Amino acid sequence: MNTEKKNYALPIAMMFALFFMISFVTGLPSPMGVIVAKQFGATNFESQLGFLANFLAYAFMGIPAGIMLKKFGYKKTALAAVFVGFVGVGIQYLSGVFGSFTVYLSGAFIAGFSMCMLNTVVNPMLNTLGGGGNSGNKLLQFGGSINSIGATITPVLVGFLMGAASGRTIEKANPALFLALGIFALAFIVLFFVDIPEPHMESALDRKTKHDHSPLSFRHFVLGAVAIFIYVGIEIGIPSTANLFMTASSTSGTHLGLGMDATTAGFVVGMYWLLMLVGRLTGASVGSKVSSKTMMTVVSTLGLIFITLAIFSPISTTVSMPLFKSNLSFGLTQVPISIMFLILCGLCTSIMWGSIFNLAVEGLGKYTASAAGIFMVMVCGGGIVPLIQGFVSDKVGYLGSYWVMFACLVYMLFYALVGCKNVNKDIPVE
Fold first, then answer.
1. Same structural domain, 167 and 134
2. Which residues are CB-neighbours of 347 under 8 A, at least 6 positions away?
3. Residue 164 has pLDDT above 70, yes or no
4. Nearest to residue 366, comparing CAs of 195, 210, 142, 260?
């Protein structure tokens, strides 16, 4: 057994790297939105199109990715995902060479296909490499933490690379893109030469088995799928619009921003993702004692409070917020109190994915695997909801657009209190 673990040490390390890449590449449209707003004169609505392109791919690839995993196994699916990711990030690099917003969106869309495929494969693959059970779960928890670290680094790194407003061009983000390309290339080489166990490949008999129902036969799952759609939009929309708000000009335009430099704004947004890491670790520590329903109720209510305070707090009121600075030291920086409340929402969004998934698949039995594929499709909400918020912010201003987030969190609270109840227990699931 020890020999097996030693043999799988390298692919496990690559899975950790891919966990990092999922959040790193998925987070790129946020700081890149700041770049395209400056370089191409994009509106708030247009600056969120990178997220739409990235997450729209999930709508197309969610179910096919699950089919690929069953038919071709972990290794081939992972290799295909890594290759597609390399191409997507490479095209985003070329968008800087050609100075084309359209090329950038194409790269974001292709990268989205890769992120969907990777999300489908890395969790079960890492669990299998760990031997399942508690050992596999331990690896998954490490993977989730590394995912949060990647999400924290993206806005910080790209914001640091951008520097002053006059230098906000895609070429400035090239070091971050090169890092992504290098990790993808290394992961592809390692996975290509390493044998991976394939215990869950679908047999010919499995493919012929027909079921009388589907996950969509369960009301609590359907409402949960909607919750996932909205949740990913909340997770992405809150920090992305905050980034735009902080870096937008404070001297011109219909809806004024704070005029902060991109480096400082990137470090502030990075704190949102760091708080998500804190929330995930806290959620994992109390998960065996506190139900998903209770956790969802608490964080949804807290999120509503933070968003309300952010909307109504005067911009002139500032607080000292602890964060990393451009010289990588840790200290206090003055930010509007509204921004602090938005960043604190990271604590609330941290445990929502796991809680929603847990509540939505409760009682599904044999339909759980199919439910996971549908969940991946609904991740496309991460592109659509921020786009709606971007449109609203063009009309009523940045803080006013957070009423979109408020409405989304109201649905989260509804699902936790009412929507998660399984009212279809008469359907056989064995």
1. yes
2. 275, 276, 278, 279, 299, 302
3. no
4. 210
Angle at 273 between CA 180 and CA 315, to 5 degrees: 125
Two structure tokens written together for 250: 């404070």
Q: Of 279, 230, 255, which Cα lies nearest the Cα of 404?
A: 230
Using the predicted structure, report yes or no on whether residue 407 has a pLDDT greater than 90: yes
Indicate if 164 and 309 belong to the same structural domain. no
For residues 191 and 266, membership in a common domain is answered with no
Helix (H, G, I), strand (E, B) or coil at 132: coil
Q: pLDDT for 372-403, tens place per residue?
A: 778 888 888 988 999 899 899 988 889 999 99
On the question of pLDDT at 1 being above 50, the answer is no
The answer to whether residue 201 is domain-embedded is: no
Domain of 153: which CATH number? 1.20.1250.20
Residues 147 and 122 sit within 8 Å (Cβ to Cβ): no
Distance CA 183, CA 19 (A): 11
Residue 36, amino acid: V
Query: Cα(330)–Cα(161) distance, rounded to whole angstroms?
Result: 18
Q: Are residues 126 and 222 in the same domain?
A: no
**pLDDT band, residue 79 (cuts 50/70/90):** very high
Contact residues for 88 (Cβ-Cβ < 8 A; gap 6+): 25, 107, 108, 109, 110, 111, 112, 113, 114
For residue 28, give its domain range: 1-195
pLDDT tens-digit series, residues 84-128: 999 998 998 888 788 788 888 898 899 889 988 888 787 777 766
What token pair was written down for 167? 């230098």
Strand partners, 323: 331
Angle of CA points 290, 295, 301, to nearest 5°: 145
